[in-house]
Amino acid sequence: MTISLAFCLYLSAALFCVGVYGVLSRQNLILVLMSLELMLNAVNLSLIGFGRAFLPSAPADPSGPQVFVIMVLAVAAAEASVGLSILLAVFRKWRTTHSGEIDLLKG
Amino acid sequence: MDAIVFHICGLISVIAAGIVVTRKNPVYSTVSLVTFFICIALEFLILRSPFLAVVQVLVYAGAIMVLFLFVIMLLNLTPLELKEDVSRRRKVVAGAISVALFALLATAIARSPTVRGAPDLAAPLAPGPLAVAGETEAIGVALFTTHALAFEYSSILILVAIVGAIYLTKKRRPLRAGLRPTGLEAQAPGTTESGAAPAPSPEARRAPALEVRASP
Fold it and tell me: Does the distance separating the beta carbons of A76 and B110 come in below 8 Å?
């Protein structure tokens, strides 16, 4: 039994699309942030799959994909912390986490 | 063996992702998200990236999940507040968009000669520098030599994120003349700094606890 790159990419695409569905269909902002994490992880999976498949064609920088994923991870951590603190600030002001009810930017 | 585990993990991760986006209660979604992250970590391990697998468990399943759970517990949403009035039409449109996106991506993957000509991902690697590309030492060397600039940029990004998170969650108190804020006096329940109307009783009951615990 083998792992094909195509399977890895199909899996990544499926997870990304589940995340897209979550972002589009949920109103609770916590769930929207979680769906964003799903999408970032799906992209990481495809990066690592590509890196593993085409490793011998990049002998100058074999750890490139891993470094790329670490950068995505740093962005994800920053996004989660800032997103959740915006959520807290919004909840304190309006007592809601529904995306439809937050229609003013001014705090 | 690797391939079997990879396929099972892939299946579990898709199911877990589906549970994340469909549950009403965010705590169930969080637990399912932990399952998803652990499956992704196992897949990284099978794709010869042991360092990233460990980082995935530490950062995602550890730190980010604790952050999400912390916020869910802090907000302490009632079932009434969790209720979403998403119309059926919106769900159908969202589902159609994501299915269309998947169809597009799947077509691109199926037609790509690069993907078709790719080697087996489960095949063993010949010993050498390429075989250890996913291990800690190789990543550390790459991160601090080839990608040092990107590393510095990411450190600035995280610094800005820390400052932003602290600024957004701290209480804003009006500075009165001759009186420095000590940060110790408790705020009256139901009143906000901007002079908003007092909250109704169920919210007012919860307000002081939220205000006190929200400051890091």
Answer: no
* Number of helical (H) and strand (E) elements in chain B, helices listed first: 10, 0
Which of B106, B43, B26 lies closest to A45, judged by CA?
B43
- What angle, 0 to 180 degrees and rounded to 10, lies between the N-to-C axes of helices B148-169 and B136-144? 90
Domains and CATH numbers, chain B: 1-82 (1.20.120.1200), 147-173+198-216 (no CATH)
Residues of A in contact with B130 (CB under 8 A): 55-56, 59, 62
A47 contacts chain B (CB < 8 A):
no
Delimit the domains of chain A by residue range: 5-94
Render pLDDT for A38-54 as a digit per residue (tens, 0 to 9): 999 999 999 999 988 88
Q: Which residues of A touch B84 (CB under 8 A)?
A: 26-28, 98
ipTM over 0.85: yes
Rounded to a whole number, what is the distance in Å from the CA of B186 to chain A's nearest CA? 16
Angstrom distance (rounded) from CA B200 to CA B178: 33
Q: Nearest-CA residue of chain B relative to A9? A: B109
Owner of token pair 């907000």: B75
Considering the domain A5-94, what is its CATH architecture? Orthogonal Bundle (1.10)
- The predicted-structure confidence for B178-189, as pLDDT tens digits, reads as follows 555 555 544 545
The burial class, CB within 10 Å (0-12 / 13-18 / 19+), for A69 is buried
Partner B contacted by A101 (CB < 8 A)? no
For the ranges A40-44, A78-82, B189-193, the lowest mean pLDDT is seen at B189-193
**Residue B82: both structure tokens together:** 């969790």
Of A38, A51, A70, which is closest to B143 when you measure between CB atoms?
A: A70
Max Cα–Cα distance, chain B, nearest Å: 74
State both tokens at B60: 């995602």
Q: Which residues pair with A28 in a beta bridge?
A: A98
User: b/e for B145-165, b at 16 or more Cβ within 10 A?
Assistant: eebeeebeebeebeeebeeeb
